[in-house]
């Protein structure tokens, strides 16, 4: 499902970490979508200030956690934002991390009920997306939303996901990056973020499906795993790794910068990305 203005490159970052000034600069650099991570609350604070600061840039949540935010409440926020900025907001939802939320209900059933509630609240299918890794949830994203927002994935996962969802479903893949040509130092930076996910069963199971071994996914993660999930090197080398997702069928790649000065990294990366599309 095509979303007008989505573009090929977005930026994934904690929902409270973007400023309007940064959003404006990122739009000028060619990053057409901001993805707000970290499960924002139902009020979706900050979304409108980012949209106000930009001309055509889209903003999406990646994701609102269904365990912590009632569907009816986030639907009210969706309608508030959509009324002011028609077609520029995407409501991404997902199950988050049940291990940390203390929830024991089957995630798939909870997702179905949440999407039902969004239907009842008038949130249209074409303005929402679903965090999805495995085939069953990818199919749910295809059938009940505009598309899928896979996180912590590789181009091989993107290829398989595209086969599952078909040609007409939105597919936005996330990949972490470290702009550093010193491999050991870059891997240390990458591990600080990736290691957390190696304690979560849904991500570990997906990595095993992609061919990573038990040794790869055991904390703190093998060099092979870290190199795949947190790309490092020169801007050109990182751009090649990111655009591999596009070659594998992604509509957009959501770039998560792990460097401390994330804006400097995105400035350096922008020309290398532009040269590849």
Automatic annotation (TrEMBL):
It comes from Nocardia wallacei. InterPro entries: Bact_Lucif_Oxidored, Lucif-like_OxRdatse_MSMEG_4141, Luciferase-like_dom, Luciferase-like_sf. One of its GO terms (molecular function) is oxidoreductase activity, acting on paired donors, with incorporation or reduction of molecular oxygen. It comes from the Bacteria. Residues 18-251 form the Luciferase-like domain. This is LLM class F420-dependent oxidoreductase. One of its GO terms (cellular component) is cytosol.
